[in-house]
C-alpha cells in the first residue's frame, strides 16, 4: 500500500460500481432474447457484418452460417460469460434500443456514486475498464437510475485494449493515459483482474459486494464491501 501517490482511478463496472444482478439478470437476457432478430435485421450493415465475420472466425463457423446459427453461438458465449469482443459489441448495439426507450436503466451502488462524485469534484481523473464494450459503457452510465453520469469519466477502456486478466492491458492503459502504474487505483470484484493489475504494479482495492465468497487476493491488497471503506492511505489525490 502507498500513501499520497495515487492520482487516478480506474474502475470496473459489474460487481464493482454496479450490481452483478443487473448485468446477469437484466442486461444479458435482454440481449439474448433479441440476438437472432437483431442479426436478421442488421446483418448487411457494415459494422454488424464485420462483427459477424469475427464471430465466424472465432467459432470456426462456415461463411454460410446464418443469423440463427450465429445467435446460438453468441448466446452460449453469453451464458458462459465469455468476454469475446464481437459478443460484447453486439450486446452493446442491442442494449441501445432498451436504454433509449427507457426499458433499461443501469444501477449504481450509492457508495460508488458518492466516491466517484467526490473524486471528480476534487479533480481526480476517473477511467472505466470493463469487459462491456466502450459503446455499452457510455449507454450504461448515460442511462442510470441516478441519471446521466457520463460526465464523471475521463475515458473508457474495454477488451479491445486487452483482456482484463492480462497484466499487459494495465500497462497499455497506463501508457495511453500517461500515468505510472503505481499512481493508478484500480477497483474490481474479479480476483483474476486483481492479480493481473497487481502484477502490472497498479495499486488495487478488491471490491466484494453483497456478502459473496471471500476473494482470494495477493497479500497487501485490501478487500472492501463499499467504496466508503477504501483505506485512507489509498485515497487518490489530484
Ligand atoms: C458496460 S455494462 C455491461 C457489462 C458487461 O457486459 C460485462 O461483461 C461486465 O464486465 P465487467 O468487466 O464490468 O465486470
Ligand atoms: Mg466486474
UniProtKB/TrEMBL annotation:
Lineage: superkingdom: Bacteria
Residues of the signal peptide: none
Cofactor requirement: Mg(2+)
Pfam families on file: Hydrolase (PF00702)
GO molecular function: 2,3-diketo-5-methylthiopentyl-1-phosphate enolase activity; 2-hydroxy-3-keto-5-methylthiopentenyl-1-phosphate phosphatase activity; acireductone synthase activity; magnesium ion binding
E.C. number: 3.1.3.77
This protein's UniProt keywords: Amino-acid biosynthesis, Hydrolase, Magnesium, Metal-binding, Methionine biosynthesis
Keyword Magnesium in record: yes
InterPro entries found in the cross-reference section: Enolase-ppase_E1, HAD-like_sf, HAD-SF_hydro_IA, HAD_sf
Keyword Magnesium: yes
Record pathway: Amino-acid biosynthesis; L-methionine biosynthesis via salvage pathway; L-methionine from S-methyl-5-thio-alpha-D-ribose 1-phosphate: step 3/6; Amino-acid biosynthesis; L-methionine biosynthesis via salvage pathway; L-methionine from S-methyl-5-thio-alpha-D-ribose 1-phosphate: step 4/6
Single GO BP term: L-methionine salvage from methylthioadenosine
Cofactor: how and how many bound: Binds 1 Mg(2+) ion per subunit.
Recorded catalytic activity of this chain's protein: 5-methylsulfanyl-2,3-dioxopentyl phosphate + H2O = 1,2-dihydroxy-5-(methylsulfanyl)pent-1-en-3-one + phosphate
Known function: Bifunctional enzyme that catalyzes the enolization of 2,3-diketo-5-methylthiopentyl-1-phosphate (DK-MTP-1-P) into the intermediate 2-hydroxy-3-keto-5-methylthiopentenyl-1-phosphate (HK-MTPenyl-1-P), which is then dephosphorylated to form the acireductone 1,2-dihydroxy-3-keto-5-methylthiopentene (DHK-MTPene).
Subunit field text: Monomer.
Family: Belongs to the HAD-like hydrolase superfamily. MasA/MtnC family.
HAMAP family: Salvage_MtnC
Protein name: Enolase-phosphatase E1
